[in-house]
Amino acid sequence: GQVEVNSLAVAPSRSHLYSSGDDGSLACFKLPDGELVWRCKAFEAERAYDMAYDLGRSRIFCISHLGTLAAVDASSGERVEKWNSPKTDGACLALINEDTIVVGTNHGKLVFVDANAGEVLFEHELGPYQKVSSLAFDKKLNRLFIAIGYSLIVFDVSKRQVVGSLATPDQAISVFHEDSSNTYMVAMTSGVIHRYRIGDENEIQVVDGWVNDATRLFAITTSPDDKHVLTLDANGEVRRWQTKSEVKRSMFATEDT
Q: Which residues contact 247 (CB under 8 A, 6 or more apart)?
């Protein structure tokens, strides 16, 4: 198996799950039975971190801890590209269109990279000495929702500038954009989870939230069928959540682990 799984990605078809590991490998599993389809070495001597699925070309982009980018064929597991051009430490990434990847670094930068040639298009500094923990992209509004240090940031890609921000009482570690409700789920390291929306003036508004038994969280995402919120905590447990709308909008219940 892989050494310390760092991230997971689900194919848009919901048919396959991809994982990245500290040994530099990527793996593909068939859903829902979890059968291993392939495993490949994306990086020879670097840890494989965050991933993004390129639907147009059926590829998986992955960033290493040194900022190297690799592209792997989603069907065969063959590495088709490897670029060192970002020349910065990588923490997370997102594919914002067929031609552009954005990399978040451990030192507060966004690095926009050509997804075809691997060349840096431009950079934007959000805040020095702050790790960009997670990125979520809203295609309709062309905005990035960013977790960095003890704050959340809204970045307008067209304008290339920050248009909104909100301080958080704890470090935000993982975010994802829920298309159906156009809201953002954010997991805090303390185990607190919040849902946010962005207002007309780009202000970040709290919608609701819940607590994961005060257990440190590592990641938050949606289930393959988009019906539930999934969290991964420090105990190695994956929890599935469902809204208890009949009680209170801000209350959530754990369905299973």
A: none
Phi (first) and psi of residue 3, to 5 degrees: -90, 115
Instruction: Report the predicted TM-score, pTM, of the whole model to 2 decimal places.
Output: 0.84
Contact assessment for residue 230 and residue 218, using Cβ atoms and an 8 Å cutoff = no
- Tell me the residue length of the chain: 257
144, 101 Cβ separation under 8 angstroms: no
Q: Are 188 and 214 in contact (CB under 8 A)?
A: no
Q: What is the predicted pLDDT for the residue at 229?
A: 77
- C-beta neighbour count of 120 within 10 angstroms: 15
- The more confident residue out of 7 and 242 is 7
> Per DSSP, what are the bridge partners of residue 21?
5
User: How is residue 140 written in tokens?
Assistant: 């309709």
Q: 81-92 burial, b for 16+ CB within 10 Å, e for fewer?
A: ebbeebebbbbb
